[in-house]
Structures are given as C-alpha cells and as structure tokens.
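Progress note, sequence design subtask.
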C-alpha cells in the first residue's frame, strides 16, 4: 500500500465490490457511517468498533507553547480533540504486515520512532 491514502471513494468502491450494493448505495453507506461517527464524537461520546479501535474525545488543558520562528512563548487555550486508539487486534495486524515486508524497510522505521 505504501504512501497511498485511502479515500471515501475507495471505501465505497470496496463496499461495492465485496457486498454487491450499487455504487450510489455503497457511497451512501460509507457517508452514513462516517457521519454517525462524527456526530457521536462531537457529542463527546466514544465510538468503539470491535477489533478495530476507539474514537475518543480528550480534553487538553491550557499550556504554554513556543513560536518556533521567534521563540516567543504563546498561551495555548484549553480544547477538546478527537483521538483514535487502535485495538490490540489492529496493532497485531499492523505488526504482522510490517514483519512480512522483511528487514529492508526496518532501519527507516526505527529512525522514525
């Protein structure tokens, strides 16, 4: 898969191919699911998808940041942010896929960690 980003259209196409709904029904289904996730998170509730992960809202406290250009300290106001926490099943699948690629890509990944 590499550096490719999966889009909504890609998800709708996968639903079309695997489930057999029409393309428009597949696109509607993907949009409906994403909209429900967004609406639920916006209310401050968690969305847990078994064997995939959880979408959560975290509160961040006010803190002092620094302008990287000038070094000037700038207050960062408190806010709520959406976060994704992958399940252990998802983590294991990613690890297996990484190990299946072989040692040629490992040094770059270790340097990034």
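Output:
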């Amino acid at each position: 898969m590499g550096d490719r980003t999966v889009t909504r259209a890609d998800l709708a196409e996968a639903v079309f191919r695997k489930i057999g709904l029409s393309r428009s029904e597949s696109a509607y289904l993907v949009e409906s699911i994403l909209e429900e996730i967004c609406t639920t998170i916006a209310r401050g509730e968690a969305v847990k998808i078994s064997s995939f992960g959880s979408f959560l809202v975290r509160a961040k406290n006010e803190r002092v940041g620094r302008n990287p250009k000038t070094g000037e300290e700038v207050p960062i106001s408190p806010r709520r942010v959406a976060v994704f926490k992958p399940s252990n099943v998802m983590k294991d699948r990613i690890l297996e896929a990484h190990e299946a690629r072989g040692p040629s890509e490992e040094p770059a990944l270790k340097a990034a960690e």
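Strands lie at 47-49, 53-60, 63-66, 73-76, 79-86. Work on this subtask will continue into the next period as scheduled.
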